[in-house]
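pls design
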């Protein structure tokens, strides 16, 4: 089956999403808090969590790249040339790997809902006078007294 650029991009997006979800699940289970109320992570724990996330994501990305030869970014965009096929393949696989691993974290950031805006503590009250000015003054009627 031939893959065009859109199909390959969609497959990469889904694969990167799957890599992110599995890596997040593994790091969640491995680094779950031992207390009922978790305290703030210290730097060592946060670093370990990031390192394990990368390791798990890298293993999954290598498995995806080994399982299929049709999901290659540069090949789908038509940027692979016959002048040096070994170098082209290396660059293509490396770039696709980076998209799968690095793209997974970015997709995760995109999927997080933004924090809702906090409501002001008190209702807003405006006091004062508002003057509306028309662009043309109103027509005055001139009456002559006779």
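designed seq:
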């Amino acid at each position: 089956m031939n893959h065009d650029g859109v199909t390959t991009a969609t497959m990469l997006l889904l694969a990167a999403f799957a890599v992110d979800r599995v890596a997040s699940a593994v790091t969640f289970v491995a680094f779950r808090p031992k207390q009922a109320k978790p305290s703030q992570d210290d730097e060592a724990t946060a670093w370990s969590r990031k390192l394990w996330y990368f390791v798990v994501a890298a293993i999954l990305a290598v498995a995806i790249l080994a399982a299929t030869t049709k999901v290659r970014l540069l090949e789908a965009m038509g940027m692979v040339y016959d002048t040096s096929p070994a170098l082209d393949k290396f660059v293509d696989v490396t770039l696709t790997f980076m998209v799968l691993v690095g793209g997974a974290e970015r997709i995760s950031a995109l999927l997080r809902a933004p924090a809702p805006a906090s409501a002001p503590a008190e209702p807003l009250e405006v006091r004062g006078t508002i003057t509306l000015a028309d662009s043309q003054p109103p027509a005055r009627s001139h009456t002559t007294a006779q």
